[in-house]
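The protein record quoted in full:
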Amino acid sequence: MGGPESGGPGLRAHLSRRRLWLLLPAALFGLLTLPAAVAEASIGIGIQAGPVRLAANAHPGGSYALPAVYVVNTGSEDESITIKIERISPGHGRTVPASWIHAGNTPVHLGQKQSARIPLQLDVPSNAKPGTYFSDVIAHGSGSVSAGHANLSVAAATGLDFTIAAGAAPAAPFSLPGWLWPALGGLVVVAAGILWIGSSGVRVRVERRQAPGSVSEGQGHADLS
């Protein structure tokens, strides 16, 4: 049997089938590598498993440094992480007002697999009611993914709890400012020098003399012993 006639329908069909066979490996390669490429670009953040907890009781009107909260970028894209206080999980006690908690150094910029500890400060107002308080520390990421007509962001949360005891916060212990210590040291040195001169019997004589040819107005001297 001979091959397809030149220029006829059989030849065109033969060439079309040949092109399909040549394109099939490239198509299969694209289908195999597409899921891997999608999987490589991922977003995600994590937060510590244990709650943020103040060990001692807080008091109305006091300020307290809470344990720093640990966050990590678990995705492959850079993230800018912010901290919010909101009650999203069940727990016992009053809800912590978001205005009582202040997160330092936010937003925190983390690269792939990088982590950080974000300091938290608790400022209790003077009219706060005693009791147990509970809420959640939520770490929000800047990345998002599209799902249909919605954009979904990533977040992770851990608990926050502390107890407020009745009574005002104890006063801070008295302390001298740092700049005052060098001044006090200088005064001690001067006082020690004066005492040494007085006890050693050293005599210091201060005498004033007139210049030659000037009118004399008197002469005086003093002895210190």
User: Anything to note?
Assistant: The CA atoms of residues 61 and 126 lie 4 Å apart. Confidence is low (pLDDT under 50) at residues 33-39, 218-222. Residues 45-164 form a domain with the Immunoglobulin-like fold (CATH 2.60.40.10).
